[in-house]
Every structure is written in C-alpha cells, then in structure tokens.
Amino acid sequence: MLPLESLDFDKLFSKIPDKLERTENLGKVASYIPELYNVNPHKFGIHLITVEGTDYFYGDSQERFSIQSIAKVLSLTMAFNLEGGALWERVGVEPSGNAFNSLSQLEVEHGIPRNPFINAGALLICDVLVSRLKNPKEEFLDFVRKLVGKDDINYSSRIALSEKEHGFRNAAMVNFMKSYENIKNDVDTVLDFYFCLCSIEMTCKELAQSMMYLCSNGINPLNGEEVLSPSRTKRVNAILLLCGFYDEAGEFAFKVGLPGKSGVGGGIVAVLPSKYCVVVWSPRLNEKGNSYRGIKILEFLTSHTRSSIF
Amino acid sequence: MLPLESLDFDKLFSKIPDKLERTENLGKVASYIPELYNVNPHKFGIHLITVEGTDYFYGDSQERFSIQSIAKVLSLTMAFNLEGGALWERVGVEPSGNAFNSLSQLEVEHGIPRNPFINAGALLICDVLVSRLKNPKEEFLDFVRKLVGKDDINYSSRIALSEKEHGFRNAAMVNFMKSYENIKNDVDTVLDFYFCLCSIEMTCKELAQSMMYLCSNGINPLNGEEVLSPSRTKRVNAILLLCGFYDEAGEFAFKVGLPGKSGVGGGIVAVLPSKYCVVVWSPRLNEKGNSYRGIKILEFLTSHTRSSIF
Amino acid sequence: MLPLESLDFDKLFSKIPDKLERTENLGKVASYIPELYNVNPHKFGIHLITVEGTDYFYGDSQERFSIQSIAKVLSLTMAFNLEGGALWERVGVEPSGNAFNSLSQLEVEHGIPRNPFINAGALLICDVLVSRLKNPKEEFLDFVRKLVGKDDINYSSRIALSEKEHGFRNAAMVNFMKSYENIKNDVDTVLDFYFCLCSIEMTCKELAQSMMYLCSNGINPLNGEEVLSPSRTKRVNAILLLCGFYDEAGEFAFKVGLPGKSGVGGGIVAVLPSKYCVVVWSPRLNEKGNSYRGIKILEFLTSHTRSSIF
Amino acid sequence: MLPLESLDFDKLFSKIPDKLERTENLGKVASYIPELYNVNPHKFGIHLITVEGTDYFYGDSQERFSIQSIAKVLSLTMAFNLEGGALWERVGVEPSGNAFNSLSQLEVEHGIPRNPFINAGALLICDVLVSRLKNPKEEFLDFVRKLVGKDDINYSSRIALSEKEHGFRNAAMVNFMKSYENIKNDVDTVLDFYFCLCSIEMTCKELAQSMMYLCSNGINPLNGEEVLSPSRTKRVNAILLLCGFYDEAGEFAFKVGLPGKSGVGGGIVAVLPSKYCVVVWSPRLNEKGNSYRGIKILEFLTSHTRSSIF
What we know:
The structure is a homotetramer.
Chain A: H1 9-14, H2 16-21, E1 28-29, H3 34-37, E2 45-50, E3 55-59, E4 65-66, H4 71-83, H5 104-108, H6 119-132, H7 136-148, H8 157-165, H9 168-179, H10 187-197, E5 201-202, H11 204-210, H12 230-243, H13 249-255, E6 260-262, E7 267-272, E8 276-281, E9 284-285, H14 292-305
Antiparallel strand pairs in A: 1-9, 2-3, 2-8, 4-5, 6-7, 7-8
Helix pairs in contact in A: 4-6, 4-12, 6-9, 6-10, 7-11, 8-10, 9-10
C-alpha cells in the first residue's frame, strides 16, 4: 500500500467528471416504493474524508438521499456495543451466498441469520436494540446525530410508511425468527423500528462523517469519544467486507477491495482503515441491487490510488 | 379388489382389541399447545361407515377430539366448489417432498404452495374462502354441520387462541405469500380464520360421517345433496393420496393404500372410494407427525380386507 | 367404479381418431441423443389389455420404440423380489417434489434416493441387481422376455452407447451415492447396466403385456407364474401412482387417476388394478418430460370410462 | 495499522510456547485416508517471513506435511495468469455459504462453482490447466519449485492414490459440471491432476516462501520475477479473504483478519499484504475442517501485533 501522502485525491477527483462521462448510467432505480422510484436517476454525488480531516467531493454530494440499508452499519455498531460478544449467539458473521431477503437459509439454519446485513440479520439487530433501549427510535437517532455532528438528521416518516406497506417479506422473516424464539419482542414493534431506521436521509458528506469511526479505530473524530473499541471496529470492518454487498460481496472485494455497505437508495459507503471513508450516491442499481455507477467510480478510485486493503 | 360383501368388518373389528394389545403405543402427543398436550395418550377410537350406511366402531369413537389439519379437506372442498379450476393457479397439486411447514419450497416456487394440505396451501385456501364468503366462520361451520347432520359441531375458542399464540410460523407464511401477492386479504383475518378452522372438535363417528361424500361420488348421503361433482371428488381423493400425510405420503400409500388425511390431534381419516370411510384416533404421533397407532391399525384393516385402491 | 362390463372399450377406441384430430400435438421430442431426436414426432400408438385377455388398440401400436424409464418398473420389480423389504433401507418411497435428476435432494438426504423412479433411485436399483445377479444384462432381458412372451425383445446397443456419451449427470449421481457408501459395485458397471436397461425397445402391445402382472395381483397371465406377491404388487402400484411422473405425479393422479410410468421416448404405461393395463406412445413431450398427447388420451380414456382408482 | 518496525516478532514468537501450553489441542485429525490419519496430532509448526526477508519460526516448522487444499492458491494463480479475466466466466468469486463439497449449490447455479477454493471450483481450475498446459503435472510442479526455490518439492503418489480411492464425491462434481459443459477435458484426467496437486508436501518454511508473492505485489522475491500482476495479486488476496476457509471464512476474517487458506492436513497460510506471509501447521481440525490450534495461534499473532488488514 502506498503511504497516504501519495494518494493525490485532488488530482483524482478532478478526473471524476470525465470518468463519469465515459461511464454509462445503467441499471434501474428501486421501484418498490414511490419515494425511491421518483428520485432523479441522473443524480451523482461523492464525498471522501481522510483521517486528517480533509474533504474531497463532487456533484450532488450535499443533497440528502435515503440511506436505507447503510443504516444497518450504525445499528450493528450500537448493538455490538451494548451486547458484546453475546450478540454472535443470535446472528452469524458468515457471508450469505444468497439474496438479501432469502428465507430458505433462515430455515436451514434454524432461525439464526447468517450475518447482520441480510434483512433477517438487520431485523434481529433491531430486536436487540428494542430490548436494550428505552426509546429505541429517539436513542438511535441521537446516536447518529452525534456521529454526524448535526441535529437535523431525521427519519422520513413517508418512506417508513411506504416501506411498511410493502414489508410483507420482512414481516415474514420476523415471524419466522420468532417461531424459532430468536426474536424476543413484539413483531410489530421490531418491524416498526426497522422501517424507521432504513428511512434516515443524509447527504454523502454527512454519511461519510457518520462512518469515520470505522477508519479511526472506533473514535468519533468530531468529539474524540470512543464509539466502538478498536478490536470491535476491526470486526465490523471484516463483516462489511464479507457481507456488505449481499450476493455481490466477492465481486466488490475483488474489484474495489474495501469494506463497505450499499443501500437500495443508491448509496455506498466504503472505508480504507486508518486512511479514509468515502460515500458515493447514484440511484440506478445493477442486477444485484447495488449502485451501478457507485461501484464503477469506487473501482476507479481504488485502482488509481492503489489503495485497497489487499 | 374383493366385492364389498366379502369385507367382513364384523369379524375384523372383533379382532381390533387383540391387535391393539399387541401394538406398542409409541410416539409423542403433540406438545406445542397445552390443549393437545393434556389429552390422555391412551385414548383410541375407530369408526367406519360403509356406503350402505352400516357402522362399525370400537373404543373411544364417541369422544370428541381436535381434528386439526383434517379440517383442511373440508375447506378445500368448499373452496374447490366456489372457485373451480381457477383454484389451481394459486396452489399446486404436487406432493411436497418436505416438511409440512417449510418456507424454502414456497420461496423456490415464488409463493405458490405445492398443495392445499401443507400449511401454506391450507392458509391460501382460507384466503380464498375469506374472499368468497360473507361470514367465513359461520358459513364454514354451517357447511360442516350439514355434512355431519348435527348442529352442535363447534370451533374450540381455547384451542384457536392457543394456536394463535404459537402461530408465528404460520404468520410468516401468510406474510411471505402476500409478498408474492398470492394472498388477497388482510393477514390477520386469514390467520384468524385458519386457527378457527383447525380447532373444530368431532368424534370419530362425526368425522367419518362428514367425509362420506368422498366415497359417494360427492353426494352427502344424509340429504342426497351434491357436495362436490363426481369428477372433482375424484380429484380431491387423488390429492389426499398424494399429499395427505406430509412427508409420509408415500409410506402411507405404500402400506395402507388409501386416500387419507391426518391431523396433529392424532386423528386420521381414510377413504375407499365407493366402499367406506373410516376414522381412527390415537393421540401419540410418530416422527413424521402422524398418529402412530392410527397408521398401524389402518394397515391392519386394509391388509386383512385386501381393500386398498391398488 | 363401474363394473368392468360397462367399460365399453370398443366404442371408446372407435372415438380415438376423432379425439386425436382435435388434440394438438404440442411439445418437443427428446433431443439429447440422436436416436430419440430422429423419431417421427407424429407417431401415435395405444394398446390396452384387460385382465380377461381382450386387446384394444389403435395406430402405431405394433411399432417398437425406446421404452426408456418405463424399464425402471421392471427392474424395480426384479429387485424387490430379490431383496424384499430390505430394499427400502437404501431407497425411499416418497415422491420427489423435484426434477427427476436432481442432486440437491440426494445431498440433503445423505445419498438415499427418494424413490426408485428418479434417476438416482433407478441407478441404485441397478446396483442391487448387479450385486444379486450373475449376468445382470442377460438375466434381466430374460425376465422381460418371459413377461412379454417373446424371445426377440432386445437392448439397443446404439441407444445405450448414445446415452453413455451424454450420461455425465448419471455418472455424477452414482459417484455421489458411492461417496455415501450407498452404491456397492463399480461405478462403470452400474452405469453400463443402467444405460442398457433404458435402451430396451418394445411395441405398445408388448409393453402392455409385460406389465399385466401389475393388474393381476402379481401373476404373469401368460404362464400363471407369480412375478411378485400380491401385497408387493400393490406396493409397486402405490409407488407408481406417487412417483411415476417425476414432478407431474400429482397432476397425473389428479387428471388421469391411475398408477403409471412415463419414459422420455414418449411412452406411458398405466394400470387399473384388477381391470386393465394400457400403453400409449407419442414422442412429443410436455415441459415436465411426459408425452403430451399420451397424457391427453389417457385423460380422455379414464374420464369416459370413469375408471380411475379414485 | 502499525508500521512494520513496531511489529516485534522476536518478542511475540518467544511467547508462543507459553501460549501453546495454554491452548487446548482440540478437534480431530482428518481420517478419510490413512496418510493423513496417521500423522502425529501433537505436531505444531509456524514460520513467518517478512517482505524484508527476515524469518521467524517455532516448532516443527521444518517438517514436511501434506498441504492439501492450500495448493489451490497456487493452481488458481497459474490459471489466472494463463486465462486472464475470461476465467471468471467459468467460476465465481463469491463466498459459498455452504460446505466445501456441496453439490446443491452447483445445481442451483448450473454448473458454475461459486469460487475457486470450494472443491468444484478447484476441479474446474484443474480443467483449465489441463487445457492450457502440455504436461500439467510437470509444469505445475516446476512452477511450485521456482516459488520455493527448491528442486525436491514433490507430489506424494501414495497420498494421491489414497485420495483417488476415496474421491467419489469429487468424481461426482466433475461429472456434474461436465453435464453442464463446464468441464472441457476427460473426467479422469482432471481428477488425476487434482489428486496429484493436493498431495504436495512442504514444510511451513517452504510453504510460506512459496506464497511470498501474495504480499509482494505478485513478485517472487527469490528471483524478482513477476508471478502475477499487482492488480491480479490483490484480487487473489480478496478471494482468499472471502473464500479461503469454507464456511468459516467470516469467522476467520472476524477473528484473524487476514487473507488465508487452510488445508485438511492441518496447514494454514495467511498473508498481510506488503508485510509478511505466515504458515502454521497443527493437524487437529475443528468442526469446520480448519486447524484448531492454527486458528488460535494466528488470532494470538494478529491481535498482539494489531496487524490485520482491517
């Protein structure tokens, strides 16, 4: 790996417009709820923050979008902190080798989700937080706001409602896990919290800021507080690398080579430990449900800076 | 096949006590709800009615028990009548080759249950009846009472409630099918009707009477009315043979050789078309979830009368 | 069921030409080996023999075709006779609920094929015969010739060779079962016997004759010898009903209502116990791999004679 | 990540004896062939080589053992070099989420193995090499010898023969893939090469030396030659991280945090890119088939040096 000083991001970001022009904007915007479907498919934003605190950005990086599944990184972090290693008795850390919302695997493995990022796993994490927190929604939002350093980060109640109306598969999963006694709380309470969580809206910049602890040994650089211990931070990064992109995890590790997480809103966050956190946003998704141009641009970024973890 | 007159049921029934004595009462009573678990495991009843109207019986054949999944034969009959061939676009007629409550198969086949007797299929049949009937619970009970010729057949609200409290897996299935748009009504309404349906209590005699149309070309012998057309009656019998015993359908066809249906309450109904309908009840279940002694005694019955359909 | 005398086959067979004219000849001829692919797709033959020995036939019923998987009924019969009930420790009697050549199920069930008619099960039956017989090929052919009453029934070495050249999936299955120690003999010997077996050629008439024991309590009507005991004969019929049509078993039982077995050469044999055996042949196959017109004509036959087992 | 100079391996290696004493030697030696089963279960060796060329070692690090599946890293490297990106049309880069020798997944994905390290994938890589090389066995051995810098690295013909005698599952997989036309060569030739490959014997030191290109941007440090391009080297490391430990990949990434590969002989190789390559050997395997003490010691190593890639 090259020393950080050789990563000339200024030069690299200046080439992004040209690279974008030469990159087709393929794929489809998520269509299962109107709030996602109506987003302008030509939007593109990118924001990178180094551990030294320098910002690099381009495009619509200041426009808020629905972070969707990326929120699962933050809920996992909170649950891991509260529950410790006991968490892994209820959810695995293995890649799924299957679609993000498969019930078959859950059946084969008796109600233990493979990892915290497939839907079943994320729902289980919500159940943990519902058990541990007095006011899950408020406390989680508070946690996120502190990471971003802004008080106006919010859930979108419209999106949460829309999700709920199309959430039968998620309802199936919570009920199914409860039949294995791996969900402790009321089914509707867990679902309600889950839909809220996925409805958070942030800009590329805010989202990158919120994840800086992942490349800073677990420290929130805004206030110096420890969000997660260094060793647990590494473990979250490992899970991100192996499970952050559903059935495209291998492809992403292969081409981009960074721990990361995607959301169906078209966002992707990626982390080079000890170096930087970067967020891209481009709403059109490839067949695996990950941002088409997002992956292309991250591939461009890491191959030009030779900055993968491998 | 021997002519009916040679089926000397008098003689055969007189041998049942001795046969029972020589048959171990193995297996376990269903334990997931107290109402089933608290049933005396030594109960045994059998009742056979011929198309000529002769009754043969032994043991606790006049004691009511929870018919559970056997009710699915009656709900299928009602739905087939109302919906006709269109029914088969929403549920298959193939054996499942899997446990009765598997979600994996439902996933592979995109929300279309394999047959009307696995749980998912029976839930779908409930959805059809909820769509078609004004007062599903009343009208279904009415339908059953006419078949039995008794006004005091009832749902057990205690059992229905207990089932509901343990019904997360069924809730998972309804939600899952709804995510494939193969459930048209409200999830809770469908589940509520389903739990009611399975809670009906009857004696061996009443249950045998209620199914006489299956060996009488679809005619209710009590009033001469057509319950189901002759050709549809044959088709229900075919589905019973192939799918009536979950993952033990082949074994039952192999050893007993009659269309039939079992319930987790320990009841089994079996039909020899044009000849007789027989019900046995013995609460202890084998590993596949079918009455242990029930199957043994039916095997004894058909091998001694050489009266299988094969 | 109507008494046999009321089954006016003369009249019914006279209607077959008209029925055929009104039945589209859809589907595709099997194309994986040239010997099957080059068969004239317009061929159609049917031959029915009653237990009284009367013959009814139409079309190309005297032309030999490749019986393919139908031979598995005969090899099962031979193996059941030699091995008795111990056979069922190595192969199940449950419908497969899957394609005929699936390896997944074999994996889930640790090398025990679900039934003797899926490919894995038929290969296992070959292994049993290889263990039990001195000269498996000769002795099996002898067995078949006695059933038909003709000395010129033969394997087609051309077809057997072609099968072998495309038999990698079957080779995979034998190796896979051997890894579970459920194949006792040399892999190539078992495969070689299997490909031979499926290459037998017969006319509709010969094939119907060869299976008459299935509707005659196990007696070969040509010589009065017992091919299989009455109770085992019933059991073979039960397996045929549940497993004879791969993933279309339920559909066939539902529509035709007889135990039967199809082959990829376009033949179907069906049996009404104590009444008749019928064979149809029409090379074009439906999506499930069963003769398209064969099933249509059998449906016509049983619905007009009201002669299903249900 | 700490700078290399702070990784005081001298001190760390001096603590290994004590750590070993406090680590139970649980698990079981592989028992499917006598050559593996008869290995002394108390053996333990470790050897680490830094990119600067310093060696650290302990225990039986100079004793040769059967590297088994670790050889698949070397065959993949050779095939990737010869075939380039086209390789990924025939084998995936996704973690398997299943046992290393599952056929179900191969069926679901139509004969395309999920990655090059599950058995099916490694067999496919052998097929590629058989197509590309004139004398596969000689040329592959030559390739390995150059990496190690020793002429006496050899296949063990005894082990290869034993493997073959128990290789029915592998034979099933090659035949199965050939049925999907994803194997181009003769089944036996591919299997023969595969069994040879897995039979190579090396010491911890030799094995570590052979993999130094993985932490040196693809350069063989012994002769300065490029074994694989830098970008392809990164990609192999990514595949190692995601797929190197069968169904324990997530666990290993989570706890150890390095790309690596295990073998059923008890060896594990792990790589910290740009820093070091380390090999441990301890024959007893945990439930997932990976060296029990091997993983414990690597966890000790990376947690004390804080040297994971995350």
